[in-house]
Specification:
Number of strands of chain B: 2
Helix content of chain A: 40-55%
Helix content of chain B: 55-70%
Strand content of chain A: 5-15%
Structural class of chain A: alpha/beta
Order of helices and strands of chain A: HHHHEHEHEEHEHHH
Largest interface: A-B, 26 and 32 residues
Strand order of the largest sheet of chain A: 1-5-4-2-3
Number of helices of chain B: 9
Largest sheet of chain B: 2 strands, antiparallel
Shape of chain B: globular
Order of helices and strands of chain B: HHHEHHHEHHH
Radius of gyration of chain B: 19 Å
Distance between the termini of chain A: 45 Å
Radius of gyration of chain A: 25 Å
Oligomer: heterodimer
Shape of chain A: elongated
Strand content of chain B: under 5%
Chain lengths: ~220, ~200
């Protein structure tokens, strides 16, 4: 047997190895199932501490304005809440339907809900399913309202703060928000704020072109 | 450590370019060593007198397939993260025919023409120039053919999906197909040896 093998030419040896591996492959099963779910807890903890998994609301606003299309924004709230208001470019996948969603593992996914809790749960579900590009909108829709839609300027704001506010004002108007310059009745205005402010057309941004890859 | 490394963000985009550069040099070196910088060898493929292209390409396919398959089975690699380009069947068949026509006329495919030019062959340089001119013309007329270009989309299709067969079985069939092709190639080379310009020299 050994002699037979050593008498073969190199191509024939390689061909034999290929046949062997091919035969093993028939019984080796499905490669898609082969990678079992392993949660790297240290990795998770590190990303959490470094905040590298969070997107700031103003950063997201900037991306939407610039028309960046390399991410998928997912609204985790229920259908009717989504109907009331959603961040432009978002698609609605309620948390319960998330495990069965057809999100792709190689997409950059940004999650948001009303606050951080539901978002964090969804983040963990996707992370444990081996999705690697999962991010959360820092502070959820609440912070989006506070920072993007209805930013406030403090009474004793410094020069830098005022300059920054001027910038944010423009962003806020783009999303149909109302910048708050008044400082005394902040709590008052806040109550009437969360009215739906969908000024950008939602349907138009739904069909996103996938980033092209490969040769 | 799990593959694919870039998708798991073990390195960033800038580093990926450096790695691509190194792999590219290796690829070019392998093509040149395989004799793919020579238009005569490449063109002989179409007269069945030198089947080196088929042998090298099919060997590369089988090697990559077996590697990817077994690395995924043992869980080192996440196959679902590997990009599969989409199939637009009619435009791609037409594009394949045009490329094949150019391959026979010019003696190179785009990759091998670069290898040829890198080794200083003048026909390689001319071919690269033609490729660039073709890209320019294609880019300019793209709005006219865009609808056709994106027509008959079948999605990111793989053979196991299309034939609805177990993945491992398709691996086995492709290995067998390759070995059959190698045997046929050896036979053809003997049969058409008289048509090979290298033999008549």
């Amino acid at each position: 047997m050994k002699k037979f093998f050593s008498n073969l030419s190199t191509p024939k040896k390689l061909a034999l190895v290929a046949i062997l591996l091919g035969v093993v492959a028939v019984f080796a099963g499905n490669p898609y199932m082969g990678s079992e779910v392993r949660v790297n807890t240290k990795d998770l903890a590190l990303t959490t501490v470094k905040n590298s998994d969070k997107i700031k609301p103003l950063e997201l606003a900037d991306w939407i304005i610039k028309g960046k299309a390399d991410y998928t924004l997912v609204d985790l709230r229920s259908d009717d809440k989504f109907g009331e208001y959603f961040i432009p470019t978002a698609m609605n996948i309620p948390l319960v339907q998330l495990p069965e969603s057809d999100l792709l593992r190689n997409q950059k996914i940004i999650l948001y809900a009303d606050d951080d809790v539901n978002t964090a749960q969804a983040w963990f579900i996707l992370k444990s399913k081996n999705f690697n590009g999962v991010y959360l909108l820092d502070g959820g829709l609440k912070k989006w309202q506070d920072e993007v839609l209805f930013p406030k300027l403090a009474v004793n704001a410094s020069k830098e703060e005022i300059a920054q506010f001027e910038k944010v004002k423009e962003i806020s108007k783009y999303f149909g928000g109302v910048p708050q310059t008044g400082s005394t009745e902040t709590i008052d205005t806040k109550v009437q704020m969360p009215t739906p402010q969908v000024t950008t057309q939602p349907g138009a941004t739904k069909t996103k072109k996938k980033k092209r890859e490969g040769c | 450590m799990n593959a694919p490394f870039f998708k798991f963000e073990y390195f960033n985009f800038d580093v990926s370019l450096i790695i691509a550069f190194i792999i590219g040099i290796g690829f070019g070196f392998a093509l040149e060593r395989g004799g793919f910088g020579n238009a005569k060898i490449l063109a002989a493929q179409f007269y069945f007198s030198n089947m080196r292209v088929l042998k090298v390409m099919f060997t590369a396919i089988v090697t990559a397939m077996l590697g990817i398959y077994f690395l995924s089975v043992i869980g080192f690699m996440d196959l679902s993260l590997v990009y599969v380009s989409e199939t637009y069947i009619v435009p791609q068949v037409l594009g394949g025919l045009i490329l094949g026509f150019g391959f026979i006329v010019g003696g190179y495919c785009p990759g091998t023409s670069l290898v040829s030019a890198a080794t200083g062959r003048l026909d390689g340089f001319m071919f690269v120039f033609g490729v660039i001119a073709g890209i320019f013309v294609f880019g300019e007329m793209f709005p006219l053919i865009e609808n056709f270009y994106y027509s008959t989309n079948l999605g990111s299709l793989t053979l196991p999906q299309y034939f609805n067969l177990p993945y491992g079985l398709v691996v086995f069939f492709v290995v067998m197909m390759a070995l059959g092709a190698f045997a046929a190639a050896e036979w053809a080379e003997k049969k058409f040896a008289d048509k090979n310009p290298e033999n008549s020299l």
